[in-house]
Amino acid sequence: MLTLQPPQWNGEWSPQEEDRRLSEEENDARQKTDGSSALTAEMVSVATQTKTVSDVSGYWVSYENGATNGFVNDGETHPKPWTVFQRPAESCSETGRQADPEWRMSSHILFGPPGTGKTITLIEAILQGYVDSPAVFSAAVQRTLAKMTDLPSTVCVLQYADDLIISSETREDCEKASIIVCNVLAQAGFKASKEKLQWVQPKVTYLGHIIMPGLRAISTDRVQMIRKMKSPQTVQQLQSFLGLVNYCRSWIPDCAIHDKYLRSLIDRKAPPKTTLNWTDEAEMHFAALKKAITMAPSLGLPSFEKEFHLHVRETEGVAMGVLLQQHGSTYRPVAYLSKKLDNVAAGMPACLRAVSAAAIVVQMAEKIVLSHPMIVYTSHQVGAILHNMQTQHMTAQRRSGYEAILLATKNLTIQPTSSINPALLGVLGMADMIDEMNQYLNRDEVEGLADCPEMESGWGAKGEMEQGEQGGPMDGFKYKKNDDGTVNKYKVFCKICNKEFQFHRSCSSLRYHVNAKHAFARPSSSASGLRQTTLDFRRPLTKSTSDNLTNTIAKWIAKDCRPISIVEDSGFMDVLQVASQDSSYKPPSRATVMMKIHELYENEKEKRKEVLAQVNYIALTGDHWTVSNNNYLGVTAHYISDTWELKSFALTILKTEERHFAEACKEQFLSVARKWDIEGKTTTIGTDSARNMVAAIRLTRYEQMNCVAHMLQRSVTVSLADSGFVNALVKARKVVCHFKHSPANAAELQAQQVSLGKKQEPLIQDVPTRWNSTLEMVKRLSSKEAVIAAVDNQEHKLILPTAAEWDKLQRLETLLEPCR
């Protein structure tokens, strides 16, 4: 905690007088803070109490911030290093980092008491040990750098905490920008470390990495430090080593494999000084990591103008990948990625482990790729497995997560391949890991993935190594026998040098021993070439897929008004079986379809209710209609959305048993409004001009509005009954009736259309109660004028319209078209 020690005052000047004189300066200090951290204002308030008064002792701050940090909410976070590394230009310079951990933000020299000759220095500082100090300092530097406005256009300035790197295409621009940055920082009170300064160089060391045009490598100091480390003896020493190595894991293809084993030696509950049980296998993994750091190549900096290529594989419960980009005629690595599979994924069959590994590596690569185009190469049909998978090894939540990463990512393209990128073979050798990969790739993965063995021949059902001459990882080793003659399947020994090894299913130490000690005696691999595994894509539909298909059928029948009996048609059954690729799939029965339609209605009704609950004003329209001697009332809701769009949807189709008296119609409308909870929001109800409907709405508290379409069609009907078109329409209806009421005449009309090369269409009879039916009759009759004349010439006694009446019908068509 912060502890403030009281001062000892020797002069006549009191603390109260000092506080009064400093109050204005303290307020200014508080105003300079912008709230970038939760404790910034309070911190400045405490820090301003630290004063130096000539020969007077002042307050001093004790840095014990453990308890304070426990109460601090998460503030600003530090950026990740991979978000900083982009492509610097040909010339780079780096400013030094701040030498003073209690960085000096500003310093004010104030006048002391009159006549005393004493002065006060007020210092604003960030407390050492405060949890948010790095983030607050980084934000302060960023605000200072934001004031620069005269940098050359080709310059890029990157900041990571107190480290700055400046890159440019030319040396002159880089030097000019470096001077500008240093001046801006100096004016703000920052100090640069001259010893750490690297001024306008083509290659600089930044964050422990060597940065050069298009490349980055591990710094020599870091490599030498790791190379000289001795085998750890305690938990703390091992954790320190793993921390250094993991900072460089982008250069190690199989880092997670060795990291996984070494971390298994650490007991989380053990104290830091606990002695490790260091084994030969642990020494092998330790040496492999040191060797990988020593031999680490330079990695390319990502270029977002080029396509990324990601090669993925899974081995020993670890997901491995290498991210590449084309460089000239070859591909250059950008990063090596590896991560241990979780316990659930590690216990899955090989094909599902490949899916999990691909998802993990893609997520890791996305931090570098940043949603730019990327092609993923895997040894399994990952997309096909997810699309056609039927297994109990994976929960629906896990599967949906994999699908979101691998199938729903727009910038991702999955390309199966039978070849293995050599970069994924690790530092333990290539030939032995190719043999292991053959074992994984040569397994059959059919029968719903349920019977997928853990290993090929040479491994038991429980994943235990079998004795025999199978070759592969076990070749050259034998199980050790116990004193009673039984086989100890947890210990093996080398047939050549008799060295003993612990065996826990992993063969890494065995392969390393053979490669390092007996490479000359290793037999040549007789494994067959790599081949792509296949799956049986004709599996029965899962229950969820079958239910989804049934729901889709019900929605189609309801939406397109198809007869429910269609589900019993044999042709419809054949179509479904072909579409679902499952001959055992049975279409739903009528009862099932009816039930699904009701479920769809209830679900849609709840959604519509939620929409109407957000609306302030609603208008209803209603109309009665008859089907098969049954009366129905249809009610539709209309409202205007926030974007001023007219929205409408049907609320209900209500079967009515009563006579259409005004009182009965009123209750029907009110029941619909109550059912949908819109009584208080309804303003008007639109109906036709029927007297009972008008009277029904007037009995409610809503305004009645006549339907414009009804009024227009009524006007058209009345006008046609009293106009100069009556005689022409009478003759037109007689011609239509001649062909509509006689099958023989209809057949002759059809034959004439064929002979004249006309489209075969029947004539249309208008109905007074059907809107636009007169227009449709006139249009069809006018288009068949030549056909009707040809039929009349064959001794048909037709009373055809005269030429003048045909002209009237054409003019009538022009008049009625806008009224449609």
From TrEMBL:
Residues 1-211 form the Reverse transcriptase domain. Residues 1-13 have a biased composition (Polar residues). It holds the Pfam family RT_RNaseH_2. InterPro entries: DNA/RNA_pol_sf, Rev_trsase/Diguanyl_cyclase, RNaseH-like_sf, RT_dom, RT_RNaseH_2, Viral_Replic_Matur_Polypro. Residues 17-33 have a biased composition (Basic and acidic residues). PROSITE patterns: RT_POL. One of its GO terms (molecular function) is RNA-DNA hybrid ribonuclease activity. Its EC number is 3.1.26.4. It comes from the Eukaryota. Residues 1-38 are annotated as: Disordered. Belongs to the beta type-B retroviral polymerase family. HERV class-II K(HML-2) pol subfamily. This is ribonuclease H. It comes from Labeo rohita (Indian major carp).
